[in-house]
Specification:
This protein has 304 residues and is of the alpha/beta class. It has a single domain (3-303), classed as Alpha-Beta Barrel (TIM Barrel), CATH 3.20.20.140. The protein has 11 helices and 11 strands. The strands form 3 sheets. A 7-stranded parallel sheet has the order 1-2-3-4-7-8-9. Strands 5-6 form a two-stranded antiparallel ribbon. A two-stranded antiparallel sheet has the order 10-11.
């Protein structure tokens, strides 16, 4: 049974494309049974706007209005397509500074969303996934040119987010390697202080029952492994952690992106069981799907 819990559309995200309804239609066409709609939560400081949003004359107010409009549309789609697909409604969060923990709590309370994807897109308030130039700025400003120092800062900040939010789904756990040389990234990850931080974060997610997404969008960025990379997957497995699947869709054509490679990745890393979120008696529950690599769904991908 295919699923994804991390998605965006151009209708409500400036670096996405296409309409949210077309994302849902594509998920139905490709045979998804559960699909999570998780547009970005609003940001609350004008200094946190991305260049593309400034160019589009966005403000913190317009971002909040856009997210509210997303929720209205998502709930409409949930009703319209309820006989064809189960849609869960959530948000991919931000944690640009610790104050965002309060914003996430308010978001959960005021909008009664089903779940959140706990992601970190900034380190010390510098965007690390927007462009290679900003990543380099973070490397120089935070890491003083040392990749392991930047990695350590990222995982320390991620830990604060995890403690504060306890997201149901942990988004692209090791996003910090997005623009790094892959060989150097592996070396940095294995530095004792960095690896200790990774283990600490994994232990905490396992302790509260969070689910780690295996995010296929990493391959669009030219990385060898999905998020998280194999070494971290082995660690999560050794701790009894739970995995789910996400395409990190940014438009209709991204639905199920690289799921053919994802199938092989699951085989290569020895992942046999996957967990997924679903509604049970009005509440979100985490269920287990056994023998994921033998699911008949994978044979259908070649016909997408």
């Amino acid at each position: 049974m295919p699923f994804s819990y991390h998605s965006h559309s151009g209708q409500f995200c400036h670096h996405g494309y296409g309409k949210l309804e077309d994302v849902v239609k594509q998920a139905i066409r490709k045979g998804f049974k559960v699909y999570g709609l998780s547009e970005h939560m609003p940001r609350f400081d004008s200094n946190h706007l991305y260049p593309e949003e400034i160019q589009a004359n966005c403000t913190t107010s317009t971002l909040a209005t856009a997210y509210s409009a997303f929720l209205v549309e998502a709930r409409r789609l949930q009703e319209v397509y309820k006989d064809q697909i189960e849609l869960l409604i959530g948000a991919e969060i931000e944690f640009i500074d610790p104050s965002y923990a309060n914003h996430v709590r308010d978001l959960r309370k005021s909008h009664t969303i089903d779940y959140v994807v706990g992601s970190l897109h900034h380190t010390h308030s510098i965007p690390i996934d927007f462009s290679p130039e900003l990543y380099q700025h973070a490397l120089e400003h935070i890491g003083k040119g040392k990749l392991d120092a930047l990695f350590k800062a990222y995982f320390d900040e991620q830990y604060k987010m995890l403690l504060s939010v306890k997201p149901e789904v942990v988004g692209h756990f090791d996003l910090i390697r997005i623009f790094a040389d892959q060989t150097k990234a592996s070396v940095a990850l294995n530095q004792p202080e960095v690896w200790e931080a990774v283990v600490r974060n994994v232990d905490f997610v396992v302790s509260y029952g969070g689910v780690f997404e295996i995010n296929s969008r990493a391959w669009k960025k030219g990385l060898l492994d999905a998020y998280p990379q194999r070494e971290i997957i082995k660690l999560i497995q050794s701790k009894g952690g739970k995995f789910t699947l996400s395409d990190d869709c940014h438009g209709p054509n991204d639905v199920g992106m690289f799921y053919d490679k994802l199938h092989q990745y699951l085989k290569d890393t020895g992942i046999k069981n996957i967990h997924y979120l679903t509604k049970r008696n009005g509440a979100v529950a985490v269920e287990e799907l056994e023998d994921i690599v033998t699911d008949p769904f994978w044979a259908k991908i070649e016909h997408w």
